[in-house]
Description:
The structure holds 2 protein chains of 2 kinds.
Chain A: E1 4-13, E2 16-26, E3 29-34, H1 41-49, E4 56-61, E5 76-79, H2 91-101, H3 107-117, H4 133-145, E6 151-155, H5 163-178, E7 182-187, H6 190-196, E8 199-204, E9 207-213, H7 214-222, E10 226-232, H8 235-243, E11 248-254, E12 257-262, H9 265-279, E13 283-288, H10 293-302
Chain B: H1 2-11, H2 14-24, H3 26-34, H4 40-54, H5 57-66, H6 68-76, H7 79-83, H8 89-122, H9 129-153, H10 157-175, H11 184-195, H12 203-207, H13 214-238
Amino acid sequence: xxxxxxxxxxxxxxxxxxxxxxxxxxxxxxxxxxxxxxxxxxxxxxxxxxxxxxxxxxxxxxxxxxxxxxxxxxxxxxxxxxxxxxxxxxxxxxxxxxxxxxxxxxxxxxxxxxxxxxxxxxxxxxxxxxxxxxxxxxxxxxxxxxxxxxxxxxxxxxxxxxxxxxxxxxxxxxxxxxxxxxxxxxxxxxxxxxxxxxxxxxxxxxxxxxxxxxxxxxxxxxxxxxxxxxxxxxxxxxxxxxxxxxxxxxxxxxxxxxxxxxxxxxxxxxxxxxxxxxxxxxxxxxxxxxxxxxxxxxxxxxxx
Amino acid sequence: xxxxxxxxxxxxxxxxxxxxxxxxxxxxxxxxxxxxxxxxxxxxxxxxxxxxxxxxxxxxxxxxxxxxxxxxxxxxxxxxxxxxxxxxxxxxxxxxxxxxxxxxxxxxxxxxxxxxxxxxxxxxxxxxxxxxxxxxxxxxxxxxxxxxxxxxxxxxxxxxxxxxxxxxxxxxxxxxxxxxxxxxxxxxxxxxxxxxxxxxxxxxxxxxxxxxxxxxxxxxxxxxxxxxxxxxxxxxxxxxxx
Lengths: 304, 242
């Protein structure tokens, strides 16, 4: 059963469309919201959180509209992407402030609990301004955990965290998901999402690109033809040899540069040394051309 | 109250408060200097009048301070920590206005203390202490009611506020009698002149079409406050928080 429903939501800022006609539901467990920078993940998060008004469509969280009913914030919290935090407050003061504003009966006690959960107890009485980026992220997560929310929105929560902190936060998010909370985590790093999410929603250019399990998304990405640039002494000879193989779908030659489009990039990597030796060609550089997440997502959306 | 105190503390950054109190103290500083050359008989009259004529610098201090009440949170990106709380929007609006009023009131007290000290030094009539405080506190309420919503609604809120002060308060409210009722300074001054002896002072110039009177002044301030509260509640509900 979905706890968060996004119905035909679009959000535009003047002529710029940040989110376009997105309809999706989120249920208990960890869902990864994946996409390159500028894909519309943060805007979608803010619309769900009630921080931004959808230009079109509607959002429902636990059956309520966050724009109309602020009592939803007893059950939904957000860890914003912005690094902003109250630098003059100590970690403990920040969490206690969050607890007081959330109407928690024992703000000091709850602050102790959540600081313990994110392992910030030792640094709790230091000013947030002196925290490292990873510690700030944990303080923001602690603030979001204060009301023990049913729905937790995490916008790039691992930014700036070191590997140990990442592992710790990922474990925490997975535990929350396993406990039946709806955890929505946005990230532009597939590996991060892969480690914590049962389900992935990929966004590109404000639209949904793919929805499914991590394995499904991975498979879709593997199906994509790969482009490889090769800088060599005789690209024309190399191109003519490659074009006859079943793995290579196309070649282009520009000056000394050869662009190969192949079904399997690894196979190209094995073919190249053999052909270079056979035809006495020196290869100075081999580089995949389209490995960025953006190009992978674009392929998912547009098939190119 | 938690939200009010949080916003108030954030507004009361030491460096900013120092300069704004200095700006609000301009009438006191001027009186301190000008009083040296005044005859004893003229001192009290000048002391009563100086708040009306030069006290407008306080409006600028109040503007700079109160537009920051929610604007600072929006600009810094910390607004979600306050906005995403189970607090009705009208209550957030009330807390924000209260914080703005408290902050503007603090600056007012600072400025007034400087003016009173200058009066004491020159031996002026201290009967204006309470009315003078009432003038500045009434202005604090009025300006906060206008500028806190302005700060939330406009990214260039100081410019918008200055536009109001220059166009409405300084220019139009003196020229068009109906617009005088829209001037917070004139409304606050109407309370002041009702409480002090203003014989010989250019009251018409200071008040325009606004009639002197504590009761009328308070009612007008109440209306401004309710309007400010309404606009801010609407903005918090209907406009993007980030």
